[in-house]
Amino acid sequence: MTDSSQIEPQEADDWASAMAEQGAEPAIDDPWAMALAEQGEVQEAVEGVAPGVGASVFKPLAALQPVAAPRELEMIMDIPVKLSVELGRTRITIKQLLELAQGSVLALDGLAGEPMDILINSYLIAQGEVVVVDERYGIRITEIITPSERVQKLNR
């Protein structure tokens, strides 16, 4: 005899159908036959109460609207964000910090000519290079950072 955990639902339905054709009611001594009969009753009750439940639980993907419609973006267009450009970073001790004076020089981990990090609200979003326009500093965006690159940059 087969273990009940190895029987497919289709096989159980076939077994119940064969038993019904023979007109045999499950014997009280046969727990397997009782379980099959009970399963059939439960399935009939579920199908009678909620036909096609599986189809209505999940909406089809084709019916979904685009995530961000242009009209929805208008609501956030005037929210201010903080943009900053980072030349480089360094770690110093509190003793070194207290020794700083006017004219002190700190070595940063950024190299000369290396692209600078452009941060929005402290999140890296792009890299760029410094430009001077009408005696003012500016930054030219040279690369937009992909999400996977953002994770790598955070780890440095």
UniProtKB/TrEMBL annotation:
Domain Flagellar motor switch protein FliN-like C-terminal: 75-145
Positions of region (Disordered): 1-23
Pfam families: FliMN_C
Coiled coil: none
Protein's UniProt keywords contain Nuclease: no
InterPro entries cross-referenced by the UniProt entry: FliN, FliN-like_C, FliN/MopA/SpaO, FliN_T3SS_HrcQb, SpoA-like_sf
Membrane disposition: Peripheral membrane protein
Locations listed in the record: Cell membrane; Bacterial flagellum basal body
Cited SUPFAM superfamilies: Surface presentation of antigens (SPOA)
Keyword terms: Bacterial flagellum, Cell membrane, Cell projection, Chemotaxis, Cilium, Flagellar rotation, Flagellum, Membrane
Similarity comment text for this entry: Belongs to the FliN/MopA/SpaO family.
PANTHER family: FLAGELLAR MOTOR SWITCH PROTEIN FLIN, PTHR43484
Biological role: FliN is one of three proteins (FliG, FliN, FliM) that form the rotor-mounted switch complex (C ring), located at the base of the basal body. This complex interacts with the CheY and CheZ chemotaxis proteins, in addition to contacting components of the motor that determine the direction of flagellar rotation.
Descriptive protein name: Flagellar motor switch protein FliN
Lineage: Bacteria, Pseudomonadati, Pseudomonadota, Gammaproteobacteria, Pseudomonadales
